[in-house]
Amino acid sequence: MQLMRPGVEQSAALKRTGVALDAIDANxxxxxxxxxxxxxYWIATARMKIVRGDMVQFEDGVxxxxxxxxxxxxxxxxxxxxxxxxxxxxxx
Length: 92
What we know:
The chain is mainly beta. The chain has a single domain, classed as CATH 2.40.50.550. The protein is 0% helix and 55% strand. It contains no helices and seven strands. A seven-stranded mixed beta sheet has the order 5-6-3-2-1-4-7, with no helix packed on it. A hairpin with a 2-residue loop joins strand 2 (29-36) and strand 3 (39-46). It is globular and about 30 Å long. The protein starts with 15 loop residues before the first strand and ends with a strand.
């Protein structure tokens, strides 16, 4: 998985944008609840630092319905696993 940092030139593949509502670290993954145009859902990517309110950009990924995380002991309605996420602090 490729992790993109703020200030790095954006790839054309990072076509989806939203605001981070929540983030949960679990081993090598970070689960991010994203609000994209009033619709919220979860994405997961390689572990990264993210805070509520950050603007996130990402590409489409593989969505798994009724995904159960053994580590978090939680079932997500769905999680989209994405390879690249770029953030802008505070949605700026």
